[in-house]
């Protein structure tokens, strides 16, 4: 169970020492770069860079293995789906068609299609390590403080912090209720038939939702009593001041994004075309 | 209290709502047997929260809940669908005032209104917004994303239509009706 969910891992590394706000900004810049580009050379560079950063962070592969396998399976299914629905997408994008293996008609495997799907896969592979790292190296309380620092209203930042705080609680409630209903013969796990499962789901949902609504009342009363939301600003126990390495990291990532955009769009297309 | 800022109750509702959204999205979705399409129980919950707490809460629960779910359990955020969750949450919330669920009344007329709006909102979200964003952001093949959107959209409409209506009826029953006291 413990590894099913990603959570903060406390280690001492250069990445951990950066403030949460820095990591958040860098993560956003990185995702933007990876989202916009389809240039294979940049994607490869970003992928290798992310592996290096991962190594520096002292997070070990087995810490995140469960989630990683899950993601890789998803990527595989997604790739198969793309091939089934649009086996000629690569030809459309790159304008040429080098047939490798002949199947029936449009399902002929082309070099372009393989290259296109390699790009899609690389795109996900560059974002995944960054996102994983961001979660496992940022303390949840600091995460809310960082959101506030980059300009998100503290009320919304606090809502995010509440969500992170209550996810384990809600998960426990969910398990308890599901088990209790199972004891009454209402199962919503995969042992039950589909229609029965959907029907039984509401038996688990209703108590969970009503107890959560009660939680909302209790928590908001407690916060109201402590004067939450009376002032324009709020301080955070976990906020840390910026240091030299934070500025360096942010500048580096901004440069990276600019370089990515320049190289990607200088010939007017998001795609790098090795075939022409 | 300034009217433009969120009330404490709404903030807490967003936080807890997002947490429940995460858990339901991860543990309570029921696979239909077709790959990548599940009965997403969590959207029925989103509809309930949006109707109780209004459009801002609905939108933010969709946004924060979906983004956190992706981040914590899948390690990467699928932005196009996160945006759709925010969008449908917001639209569900727009009928919050009209339905006035706190009055304890949720009769046939309100059920019809709710379902018309939820089908409309999800049609816009899943049939149009999700595939378009998938193409713009991820350059996925057109036919794949539209078929995917169609499948997810229809199954979510049915889920929200059945489970969402059920949850709203249940919730309305827990409220005290106006004029429910009789003089003896």
List keywords for this structure.
heterodimer; A: 276 residues; mainly alpha; two-stranded antiparallel sheet; 67% helix; flat; B: 184 residues; Arp2/3 complex 21 kDa subunit ARPC3; two-stranded antiparallel ribbon; 7 helices; 2 strands; globular; membrane (chain A)
Task: Note the topology.
The complex is a heterodimer of chains A (276) and B (184).
Chain A (H helix, E strand, L loop, with lengths): L13 H4 L2 H17 L3 H17 L8 H21 L3 H6 L4 E3 L7 E2 H27 L2 H10 L4 H30 L10 H32 L18 H22 L11
Antiparallel strand pairs in A: 1-2
Chain B lengths: L7 H20 L2 E2 L6 E2 L1 H13 L1 H20 L4 H15 L2 H4 L8 H31 L3 H33 L10
Antiparallel strand pairs in B: 1-2
Helix pairs in contact in B: 1-2, 1-3, 2-3, 2-4, 2-7, 3-4, 4-6, 6-7
Explain what this protein looks like in three dimensions.
The complex is a heterodimer of chains A (276) and B (184). Helices cover 67% and strands 2% of the residues of chain A. Chain A is mainly alpha-helical. Chain A has 2 domains: 19-139 and 240-265, no CATH class; 155-225, no CATH class. Chain B is built from 7 helices and 2 strands. Chain B has helices spanning 8-27, 41-53, 55-74, 79-93, 96-99, 108-138, 142-174; strands spanning 30-31, 38-39. Chain B is globular. Chain A: The chain crosses the membrane at residues 20-36, 42-57, 64-85, 114-136, 247-266. Chain A: InterPro entries: ABC/ECF_trnsptr_transmembrane.
Q: Please tally the helical runs of chain A, counting DSSP H or I stretches of 4 or more residues.
A: 10
Beta-strand fraction estimate of chain B: under 5%
Q: How many strand segments of chain A? A: 2
Could you tell me which chain pair has the largest interface and how many residues each side has?
Answer: A-B, 73 and 62 residues
| CATH fold description of chain B | Arp2/3 complex 21 kDa subunit ARPC3
Sheet with the most strands: spatial strand order of chain B: 1-2
Evaluate the radius of gyration of chain B. 17 Å
Number of helices of chain B: 7
What is the radius of gyration of chain A? 24 Å
